[in-house]
Amino acid sequence: MHCLIVIPTYNRAGSLGPAIEAALAQSWRDLTVAVVDDGSTDDTADVCAGFAADPRFVAIHLARNVGTAQAKNVGLALLPFDAVTFHDSDDLPHRDKLARQARVMARSDLIADPCLPWGPRQGAGAPAPLHLVLTAHDHVTADGGQVKICRALSLVDDFFPNLQFNTGPLGDWVLINSGLFRREMLAQAGGFADCIEEDREIRNRLLMHGANVWLIEDALLTKFESPDSLTVQGATGYRSSRRERDRQAVWRAIETWRRDGVAPVQTMDLANVSLRQVVNPGRLAVAADLAMTPESRVQLAAQVAAAQAGHAMRAAA
């Protein structure tokens, strides 16, 4: 199973290096680590250049800032993988994080127990392949506090808010962005919605599509909250008007699914994404099986070809 770690980043050169090193140091060796630089104006390109000699490393520098969701979509659209996980640019994973997730995902002994109402998509008594493997994590707050995040009920909080009452710190939920996604499920459900609640939205959409989910209760990742984190900033924080609008859209999608019984598919629109620079462009390939607009596929294919031709010319010089 070839695993991809995508690290979207924007002006985090100071913390990015250790995050890349920790990703490349994973004990699961069949992997690619890809930084998607979302138009940074600091020394991010210099940090990435320091890892160029590692054939498992790729850096895609975008010409302009498009937001975290679209940066993640760029990773999905341009890099081959059997399973993919997303790390923040200051995350420090346990060296066995990916190995433990991949080994759980590869299990073939899981059966849909007939005592539960599986429905037509997953027949009772049939094998139940895992589509998403999550992990608990240690969360270091901006004021230096540390808590373990492993609140499994949070996975269904938008579907069953009556199960959710605050029993821990604000934000005490299992984060989707450190989960390991099976490619086949993303091919069915699509990529990330272009919003700041992209993790919440894709989590719900995967559940609507019937994704089989496993939670590893050990904390295999340390995440850091900083004063400039999206969830701390006034414009995008937990109580911001922008985030509230995105949440309303997420909840409306659930209402529509309950009424119609049809799970939505998120088609990636990357036609306006421009690649400024690519480290190790030979690893890039435009995905043929993921939902993407035709314009996106054409534009990205042309840019990948140009990046690979330019690299070949420099190598021959």
UniProtKB/TrEMBL annotation:
Chain ranges of the Glycosyltransferase 2-like domain: 5-109
Record bears the keyword Transferase: yes
CDD domains found in the cross-reference section: Glyco_tranf_GTA_type (cd00761)
Record's keyword terms, sorted: Transferase
A GO term for molecular function: transferase activity
Domain of life: Bacteria
PANTHER family xrefs: GLYCOSYLTRANSFERASE, GLYCOSYLTRANSFERASE TAGX-RELATED
Identification of the protein by name: Glycosyltransferase
Organism: Sandaracinobacteroides saxicola
